[in-house]
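Field: sequence (string)
Field: structure_tokens (string)

Example rows 1 and 2, in order.
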Amino acid sequence: MSNLPEPVRVVRLPDGTYTYADQLPAIQAPMGVPQVVHQHIHQAPPDRTLQRVALGSGVGAGTVAAGVYFGPLLVGALTAIAANLALLALLATVLAWGVVTVVRSIGGPDGKAAAKNLAKTRKSLRRR
């Protein structure tokens, strides 16, 4: 018994070139029959212009790779922070409105006077 692999057969193709038998192309349809082409359309690859400019200006490939990796993460983190701040601002506005409404309704004349003083203070601050 030999440990050598089986010899691979060499075949001559109709166009005169040689190839290995295990690498023969798939059987082609006859020339008169139109072939059906299945084309898969994919999303376009991302634009690499900025990375090419950065590499051309002497920035290392590691820096460019970090920018490609951490750039979208940074955008996502900043978006999440902005959404949280917007939610907190809405919550503060609703709570302030609720406190003012309760003070006006329960406080009697003192509560109404306090609300008027607060309104006057706001108007005077706006004018400055």
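Row 2 begins here:
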Amino acid sequence: MTAYWFLALIPFLAGLALTAVEARIAFTEHVTRSLGRRTQGVVTDHVASREGSYPTLHLVVRWTDDHGTEHEYPLPHTADAHRITEGTRVHLRHLPGAPESVVLDAPDRYRTAVLGMCLGVLLWAGTLTAVLVRIATLLPPGSRYRF
């Protein structure tokens, strides 16, 4: 085998990394949806932050928890925040006792994470299968592991 086989590490490791990141997101979304409390809030502002090399808008929402305490937090993982105007009522979920865990009550983030996990598994499993088939075809003819 030559050094070119190390190039197979790129899609394999990329698939593992993508699977791990998306699994973490799917897990936190599942926990928030199953243990979180649902409430209604109001968009009060948009905050711009620099993520990477481009500015990103985040919603700032205000809501009242079960104890009557009013909270106001930015939502860092909001897709299409520019489409939701100030004063819009939104459905939120947050974990009891952790108001900073607030997220929009929408299934989009969970679905995207599951799709990313499937893509990651496809990448690493496909690469592993291709490498194992290639190794099996390179075995000597008298080997008992040959196809």
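free_text_note (row 2): Helices lie at 9-35, 108-138.
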